[in-house]
Amino acid sequence: MPEDPRQALLREAADRSPHWDVLVIGGGATGLATAWDAVSRGLRVALLEQADFAGATSSRSTKLVHGGVRYLQKGELDLVVEALRERRLLLHNAPEYTRTLRFVLPATRSFGRHYYRFGLWLYDFLAGKSGIEKACLLDKAETLERLPRLVLEGLKGGVAYTDGQFDDAALCIGMAQAIRASGGLVLNYAPVEKLVVENGKARGLVARDEESGDSWEMRASVVINATGIFADALREKNHIASQWTVRASRGSHLVCRREILGGNHALILPKTRDGRVLFAIPWKDRAVVGTTDVPTGHPCLDPEITPDERRFLLEEASRALGVTEADVTSQWAGLRPLVSRAHVRKTASLSRKHVIEVSPEGLVTVLGGKWTTARHMGEDAIDTAFRAHDLPVALSSTADRPLSAHGARPRPHLLDEPADPGPEALREEVLEAVRHGYARSLDDVLSRRLRVLPLDAMIARALAPQVVEIMAPELGWTSGKTAGQLADFLRLSASFVPLMND
Ligand SMILES: Cc1cc2nc3c(=O)[nH]c(=O)nc-3n(C[C@H](O)[C@H](O)[C@H](O)COP(=O)(O)OP(=O)(O)OC[C@H]3O[C@@H](n4cnc5c(N)ncnc54)[C@H](O)[C@@H]3O)c2cc1C
Q1: Which of 367, 361, 368, 369 is nearest to 388 (CA)?
Q2: Residue 479: which domain range?
């Protein structure tokens, strides 16, 4: 039997002889983009993730590669320009993981139609030459042609415009593969227990293998904290002061049968009851409806949608598209790592701009931002870190560095795959996930490699016994461990099942 691929990673991580240029803590979009930027500059980089890659916020987004129409409304033009540039780069560098998508914004007032048309003209203008289809005005018939299930009262027409969408967890795994193929080290299930601080300077860290319990020390020129909603916890544990604090905000989604849209266009509702925008987006063979914005003081890996949020999303989706409970196949929540200096109550009013902070100990923390801007955050983090440590570094090259040309292994037709892959594809995809995709648990496979759980919770629970049987011999699991994996998954997936937690 071939050696478990994790063993080589663990040996390399515990080997004390190499001096790392960069150690990145956190394997979400920000940490992976930072490690990708570092390795692309020829630096020796290792990334450590406490759970699975994308296990926290980065697999729970609305899956939009976007400039943010909402930020345009708030007048945050610099953020929109940055995100639109990054949208273009991501569509170019990761075409297998991303695609453009046509949106329809319906209007219930004639003036509203022209107001939104102007806003989306500005959006296209700020995007520059992106090769993306431009916005256009729609009359009522044209709006309904694109969204045949739309039942909004008083519909006058709408505006069609283009943005991007992607598979967030798959892109994280693709980045991890590309970092590894380029000579970097990526290790999941390796929590950083503490920082090594000597003479007041951060010189490295102590990490633990979650599977064996073994700990080891790693040393580096630069240590980067990319732990999202957990950034304050890491700093507090190591007595590192900060001017910025993380304000977690929960965003929840319902996943529905694809038929609720009646076509390939996405819907954006410009104003819900709570004054936010709401999306209903075709994603694989389902439709994702979201999201909410609820401040929460408890960073955790597995946040859950509340009955109130569920009711709110269902009511809004019903008002616009006639969605009923029977249409819902999955539900989930994620926590936005918003950043603020002082006490700000309303998280919806916090900027999505990213912040990079270098502590007096030299720990570099990269925080906030959006999935879409992760590449730029990574570039900025490495530039700032090397400047702060007065070290020479090559220029970033990730703006023009396609992932799959550098070792990423996207599944074919990633954005069109069904919730249930079918028996033949299932086996092949589970083996790929374990052998080449760093999957270590049943949840890793069903949530973030095959995406079955976020698409359809009941299908995921039904497939779990088959999947665990394919994984067990690959990972050398005993019958006790195999049964434990199944039980853990059934417990964890319960909150994804519509209605069960109401
Ligand atoms: C509901 C919702 C919808 C969103 N929709 C969009 C969207 O459509 N488009 C968009 O561009 N953005 C979107 N975002 C924002 C985007 O998802 C986030 O900005 C991004 O995923 C944050 O990534 P991150 O790497 O900073 O955080 P995370 O993904 O949370 O990664 C941090 C990682 O650090 C790890 N970690 C923590 N402590 C340790 C430790 N001690 N040792 C090792 N590892 C540790 C965690 O386990 C975690 O995996 C959305 C966010 C939410 C919540």
Answers
A1: 361
A2: 418-496
